[in-house]
Amino acid sequence: MSSTHAPGSATTPTAPDASLTSVALIARQAIVNAQHVVIGYELFNRSRTGPTHTAATDVALVFTALSHAGTDELVGKKLIFVNCTHESLTGGHLELIDPDKVVLEIPPLGHAAAEEVAARLPILMGLRERGFHLAFDHTVLQSTYATWLPLADYIKLDLSVLAPDQLAVLISYANRHTQAELIAEKVETAQQYDAASSQGIQMFQGYWFARPSLVHAKLVAPGQAAILELINLVRKQASTDDIEEVLKKDAGLAFNLMRLINSSGFGLTREITSFRQAVMLMGLKKLFRWAALLLTASRTSGTPSSVGQTAVVRGRLMELLALETLSQEEADEAFVVGIFSMLDTMLSMPMESALGLLSVPDAVSAALLRHEGILGDLLSLAQACESSDDAAFNRAASTLHLSSQQINGAHLQALAWADHITE
User: How many CB atoms lie within 10 A of CB 121?
Assistant: First the structure.
């Protein structure tokens, strides 16, 4: 069958490529209401080396939560409570998320002068105006922080350091001077719970309810060359067509974008199923911030992995062959099928679970899961082009009414197109 295959095609990988997928450790601890129903989770970055909590670790935590590719949602539709440094509060990562889903835990300033408290106030006010919820610890009830107090949506009372009489005074003061909801944290015994709830506290966090659970958050790392090309195009305010072209050349890049924009954290009310839609809805400013974060998180070399390269070739081949007889919209779907056809390998999970992380049209899902429909036939043909299965190749070509010349030409174009990004 050598006459019916384009030269230089890769064989289908049989094992996950470790360079494509990385794992970050995130701990989450439930925050519950008086009925013990979970209303949110506080997230902790357990991947950082050493105890240092910095702006960089804040960014990494939020980015990981947004890009997590595991079968279990980190937080689902619950609130996300995130510890912050004051430096990270101006970070671009906050532009990428729906503020209504996020509670920023604002640290005290230590032995702060009134001038420093006043200097931070505009930043906090800006975050609140954008829709973020703000949480403070009990030190915000001190007179030094009087200007911050009206911004508090939540005030956390640490039962490990507050004596019962102190707790009662702080609860009384907070109820008189703020509209904030009070959270008793580090609740470790029934006695502590009873003491807090008897004084009207309605929200709780601590070992008595749930210990932090570790989530091994999977991240699909795109090639750095593709990220850099995307950043350059966005900075030049390139056309949507040019930006879409880069996304279509890197399976990891494509997956991350579709994962982010359809996540509950992004806040859209409808599902996005094409790269063009994603680019237009995200906008150049957010796209730039997202690409910059991806670059800092990427641990791969500039050369695309064999898995990602194969997926890109499949996508382009299927798109070109679809254009022979189908509409542009169907050809776009053919590309999506091809580039996502190796998600199970990329994420080390069944395809059905991987597709559960994305929003794809029914025809795309049917092709990926069961090789159904014309998109399924195109996928079978693309896979046959990577193997030495003459029978499968001839079957698929016959079903699609495509000649060897058409397939060879499209395959060579797809290989050249996919290789272009590494030049």
Answer: 14
Q: Is 27 helix (H, G, I), strand (E, B) or coil?
A: strand
Q: In the chain, what are the domain boundaries?
A: 1-17+305-423, 21-216, 221-304
Give how far Cα 212 sits from Cα of 12, 110, 130, 264, Å: 40, 27, 29, 22
Indicate the SS3 state at residue 218.
Answer: strand
Q: Per-residue pLDDT averaged across 30-49, rounded? A: 84
The rounded Cα 180 to chain-centroid distance in angstroms is 30
Determine how many CB atoms are found less than 10 A away from the CB of residue 170.
17
How many other C-beta atoms lie within 10 A of the C-beta of residue 104? 24
For the structural domain made of 21-216, what CATH number should be given?
3.20.20.450
- Evaluate whether 323 touches 331 at the Cβ level (below 8 Å): yes
Give the separation between CA 311 and CA 304, rounded to whole angstroms.
11
Joined together, the tokens standing for residue 266 give: 């992004």
Q: Exposed, middle or buried: residue 373 (CB in 10 Å: 0-12, 13-18, 19+)? A: middle
d(CA 85, CA 61): 12
Task: Give the residue from 152, 144, 140 showing the smallest Cα distance to 113.
Answer: 144
Residue 31: exposure state from Cβ atoms within 10 A (0-12, 13-18, ≥19) = buried
CA distances from 116 to 88, 110, 128, 135, 249 (A): 17, 11, 19, 19, 48
DSSP single-letter state for residue 223? P
203-234 residue pLDDT tens: 999 999 888 877 777 666 677 667 767 877 88
Backbone angles phi, psi at 40, to 5 degrees: -175, 175
pLDDT digits 0-9 by tens, 90-141: 766 777 777 888 899 999 987 767 788 999 999 999 999 999 999 999 999 9
Q: Which helix (H) or strand (E) holds 44?
A: strand 38-45
pTM: 0.64
Q: What is the DSSP letter of 295?
A: H
- Type of residue at 366: A
3 state SS of 69: coil
| pLDDT bucket at 376, cuts 50 / 70 / 90 | very high
Please state whether beta strands 133-137 and 181-185 pair in parallel, antiparallel, or not at all (unpaired).
unpaired
Q: Which residues contact 119 (CB under 8 A, 6 or more apart)?
A: none
C-beta separation of 340 from 251 below 8 A: yes
Of 67, 71, 16, 20, nearest to 356 (Cα)?
A: 71
